[in-house]
Amino acid sequence: MIIDTSRPRHAGEDRPGSGLGRVIRNRLRRPGPAERMRILRIGGRTIRVAVREGAPEWPPLLLCNGIGASLELLQPFVDALDPRRGVIRFDMPGIGGSPAPAIPYHLATLPSLLAGLLDQLGHEQADVLGISWGGGLAQQFALSRPGRVRRLVLVATGPGSLMVPGRPWVLLRMLTPRRHRDPGYAARIAGELYGGSARKDPIVARDLLHATTRLGPARGYYYQLIASLGWTSLPWLPKLRPPTLILAGDDDPIIPLVNGRIMHWLIPRSRLHIYHGGHLELAADPQRLAAAVEAFLDADLTAERSEQ
């Protein structure tokens, strides 16, 4: 287990590596020229995908986003990664630039979507990172398609319905997409909902949800909520095969830290990295957490190469 003792940066600190300052400066940025935006049809679903090509000997990093958030939300994190690392991002059906499907879906049915995405992009295997809701998707993919996942990174996430929940009022705020559609509301509730750096500067959370993301239809959010109903990974966590890094914040009102500890205890070959901050720190202060992710992936790459 690793406990990150570095402090989160304050918004607007104009210094190299200042995650929150980077968000303010780059808040209107979209995927850069090194990335290709594509619309793919996979198993009857249409999704918007951004691909950053990387070194051919490195497996790509597939990012699974949180509920209601488009792929642009994680641009600061992508910018903080080693440019040699290929990155694949996508909008879930009904989110961002992906049209909503005719009927809802469930997390248990989604591994075929991710497998089809990797197939169309020509990758047999990928490292997979999931944050919040996307962490559930990443777990389900690794459980259902273990051969497609080389390494697994779970950020600010839990094992689904069988987890230690946040406070009731926090969960009630999550039942609607209002924070994604009303910037003023997002700023008012950001500190109490997301914790961490959002307590000191809720404007950063507002900009992450609005100035840097693309709004999809409201029903796309509700489809994501429906997809997680009754879903849990808890009984199957001991069967997770990929080496796993768990990143858990010590001030996350949505996913209390104890969930990260439980997952670490249940998942074989897992590492727990506790960072100071809340639910949005991966995007709000990306340099700190990108360093932890890179260390995990690079250490395993080095070990694999030494064995060959």
The total of helices stands at 13
Q: How can the largest sheet be summarized?
A: 9 strands, mixed
How much of the sequence is in beta strands? 15-25%
- What is the mean pLDDT? 89
Describe this structure in words.
Helix 3 packs across helix 4. By secondary structure, the protein is of the alpha/beta class. Mean pLDDT is 89; it is low at 10-25. 38% of the residues lie in helices and 17% in strands. Helix 4 (133-144) links the parallel strand 6 and strand 7 (149-155). The two termini are 28 Å apart. The protein has a nine-stranded mixed β-sheet with strand order 1-9-8-7-6-4-5-3-2, with helices on both faces.
Salient structural properties:
308 residues, alpha/beta, 13 helices, 38% helix, nine-stranded mixed beta sheet
Structure at a glance:
The protein is an alpha/beta fold and 308 residues long. It is built from 13 helices and 9 strands. The longest helix has 22 residues, at 286-307.
Task: Set down the secondary structure blueprint.
Layout: E1 2-3, H1 19-25, E2 35-42, E3 45-52, E4 61-64, H2 75-80, E5 87-90, H3 111-121, E6 126-131, H4 133-144, E7 149-155, H5 168-173, H6 178-181, H7 183-194, H8 197-200, H9 202-209, H10 218-227, E8 244-249, H11 257-266, E9 270-275, H12 281-284, H13 286-307
Helix pairs in contact: 3-4, 7-9
